[in-house]
Amino acid sequence: MQSTAAVSLSASAIAGGGARSEATRRPGGLRVCGLRGEALACPSLRISPVPARLAVARAAAATNGAVAGSGGFDYDLVIIGAGVGGHGAALHAVEEGLKTAIIEGDVVGGTCVNRGCVPSKALLAVSGRMRELHDEHHMKSLGLQVSSAGYDRQAVADHANNLASKIRSNLTNSMKALGVDILTGVGTIVGKQKVRYGKAGLPDKEITARNIIIATGSTPFVPKGIEIDGKTVFTSDHALKLESVPDWIAIVGSGYIGLEFSDVYTALGSELNIGQVTFVEALDQLMPGFDPEIAKLAQRVLINPRKIDYHTGVFASKITPAKDGKPVLIELIDAKTKEHKETLEVDAALIATGRAPFTKGLGLENINVVTQRGFVPVDERMRVMDADGNVVPNLYCIGDANGKLMLAHAASAQGISVVEQISGKDHILNHLSIPAACFTHPEISMVGLTEPQAREQADKEGFEVDVVKTSFKANTKALAENEGDGIAKLIYRRDTGEILGVHILGLHAADLIHEASNAIALGTRVQDIKFAVHAHPTLSEVLDELFKAAKVNSGVSHSVNEPVAA
């Protein structure tokens, strides 16, 4: 990564931070995101039958929240930003009977749908198939013969663009169907519970809201000294258009974005015998945000066998786009001494140094709120804090704009949590239960703490950490697919059985992680989850074996229900 300022995916951010949040110690009287068994026993925690919840949503949709009434305000809730976080909050708000509007100055779907996780998955789907078809040894081991495999670059780019358009349309239609008012323009907070919005050349409109959620997301972070031309030096926003497959591309930053694009470029470039990738990483090791053991194995599987080299411990102090027949020039300096090390000459450079919050122009100065490196300060309930450290009433911020965990599904979860609060049900989201995934081939996924973070916490709090691992090479389904490369790793407390973290590298790791993340969210301990039954033969048995391998101290009781004899 290039710079620590405003970079989204630091080691602590990816794994949820090095210390257990205050939310993990909340008393049972709060309605929380299942952090402990006693929290689940709380009388205020109710799970409504699905038909009843749908009936409320449908009734509210007919009059956009007339169930609750707006009490003199234009709306019960106004959301600034219609990305994944704003969308999730809006749908849940209508379900809770709140009259809701969402303001969007660009296009519905935000970064994730239009310039991020959605179109990138389309490209990765293609790269995965190309990689498999070009793996002659893999094909022969399955008894398959493939004479040749090629691709149409424009058709691949169209697939990514069409997918984004389809999901964007789905999101828009889902809000319209439930009666959410979609207001077009740039939203600005002009005072307590007041928002102004409008487009250039048109008169602004002002509305009032009982509650306001800021959900404005983020933009690619470009460090100083890097000149973007959108053609030969570009961010992920440009790369997703797939206007070319460079012969040799440097990727600055080896986090999620950089790894996924290295997968795309090396797979698509292999057909033309191009696709050389060079990583430039500021820290001393690649993939610094991942669990070190997983990162080491990922380098052996995802980096070393491919046309990828790397420079670690260096900054790209200056990058000049290609012009007048000259290549892209990248000046590297030592990250510690700042001395010049060398100059790279490549065909293109992708800047994947994280993301910066998009919070300018929100009018925060009108309510005495000062951003921190661009991020809106919030407490554990996503309530915005002013410059004096006080909660700003009826104002919340979710998603990338608050910097707690810069993932689309985290933004949605935060939005739903906020709606629960303004509906009268106190709710705290446990960010350590939110999973993350990197959609390389094979995939990487994680939830909770890394092993170093867990051991650091154990040293401070005085408990024992244990680690168990299982291999995909022992899984029948993985072997049937001839995809045995991979491991799953469980980090837990031996004295209580609490799951602290789970990390997976292997086939469909992004899908497998949710059993672990749900266990953390619900407070399920390893001594309980080992009794869960998994279909055979499936990849889920990788986690089944993982939980069964964990040993807790003798005398530790079950945290949920004791198994009942047949």
UniProtKB/TrEMBL annotation:
<feature type="binding site">
    <location>
        <position position="121"/>
    </location>
    <ligand>
        <name>FAD</name>
    </ligand>
</feature>
<dbReference type="Pfam" id="PF07992">
    <property type="entry name" value="Pyr_redox_2"/>
</dbReference>
<keyword id="KW-0285">Flavoprotein</keyword>
<dbReference type="InterPro" id="IPR023753">
    <property type="entry name" value="FAD/NAD-binding_dom"/>
</dbReference>
<feature type="disulfide bond" description="Redox-active">
    <location>
        <begin position="112"/>
        <end position="117"/>
    </location>
</feature>
<keyword id="KW-0150">Chloroplast</keyword>
<dbReference type="Pfam" id="PF02852">
    <property type="entry name" value="Pyr_redox_dim"/>
</dbReference>
<keyword id="KW-0560">Oxidoreductase</keyword>
<dbReference type="InterPro" id="IPR016156">
    <property type="entry name" value="FAD/NAD-linked_Rdtase_dimer_sf"/>
</dbReference>
<keyword id="KW-1015">Disulfide bond</keyword>
<dbReference type="GO" id="GO:0004148">
    <property type="term" value="F:dihydrolipoyl dehydrogenase (NADH) activity"/>
</dbReference>
<dbReference type="InterPro" id="IPR050151">
    <property type="entry name" value="Class-I_Pyr_Nuc-Dis_Oxidored"/>
</dbReference>
<dbReference type="InterPro" id="IPR012999">
    <property type="entry name" value="Pyr_OxRdtase_I_AS"/>
</dbReference>
<feature type="binding site">
    <location>
        <position position="354"/>
    </location>
    <ligand>
        <name>NAD(+)</name>
    </ligand>
</feature>
<feature type="binding site">
    <location>
        <position position="400"/>
    </location>
    <ligand>
        <name>FAD</name>
    </ligand>
</feature>
<dbReference type="GO" id="GO:0009570">
    <property type="term" value="C:chloroplast stroma"/>
</dbReference>
<feature type="binding site">
    <location>
        <position position="187"/>
    </location>
    <ligand>
        <name>FAD</name>
    </ligand>
</feature>
<keyword id="KW-0809">Transit peptide</keyword>
<feature type="active site" description="Proton acceptor">
    <location>
        <position position="536"/>
    </location>
</feature>
<feature type="binding site">
    <location>
        <begin position="253"/>
        <end position="260"/>
    </location>
    <ligand>
        <name>NAD(+)</name>
    </ligand>
</feature>
<dbReference type="GO" id="GO:0046685">
    <property type="term" value="P:response to arsenic-containing substance"/>
</dbReference>
<feature type="binding site">
    <location>
        <begin position="216"/>
        <end position="218"/>
    </location>
    <ligand>
        <name>FAD</name>
    </ligand>
</feature>
<keyword id="KW-0274">FAD</keyword>
<keyword id="KW-0676">Redox-active center</keyword>
<feature type="domain" description="FAD/NAD(P)-binding">
    <location>
        <begin position="75"/>
        <end position="415"/>
    </location>
</feature>
<feature type="binding site">
    <location>
        <begin position="406"/>
        <end position="409"/>
    </location>
    <ligand>
        <name>FAD</name>
    </ligand>
</feature>
<dbReference type="InterPro" id="IPR001100">
    <property type="entry name" value="Pyr_nuc-diS_OxRdtase"/>
</dbReference>
<comment type="subunit">
    <text>Homodimer. Part of the plastidial pyruvate dehydrogenase complex (PDC) containing multiple copies of three enzymatic components: pyruvate dehydrogenase (E1), dihydrolipoamide acetyltransferase (E2) and lipoamide dehydrogenase (E3).</text>
</comment>
<comment type="similarity">
    <text>Belongs to the class-I pyridine nucleotide-disulfide oxidoreductase family.</text>
</comment>
<keyword id="KW-0520">NAD</keyword>
<feature type="binding site">
    <location>
        <position position="281"/>
    </location>
    <ligand>
        <name>NAD(+)</name>
    </ligand>
</feature>
<dbReference type="InterPro" id="IPR004099">
    <property type="entry name" value="Pyr_nucl-diS_OxRdtase_dimer"/>
</dbReference>
<dbReference type="InterPro" id="IPR036188">
    <property type="entry name" value="FAD/NAD-bd_sf"/>
</dbReference>
<keyword id="KW-0934">Plastid</keyword>
<keyword id="KW-0547">Nucleotide-binding</keyword>
<protein>
    <recommendedName>
        <fullName>dihydrolipoyl dehydrogenase</fullName>
        <ecNumber>1.8.1.4</ecNumber>
    </recommendedName>
</protein>
<comment type="function">
    <text>Lipoamide dehydrogenase is a component of the plastidial pyruvate dehydrogenase complex (PDC).</text>
</comment>
<feature type="domain" description="Pyridine nucleotide-disulphide oxidoreductase dimerisation">
    <location>
        <begin position="434"/>
        <end position="545"/>
    </location>
</feature>
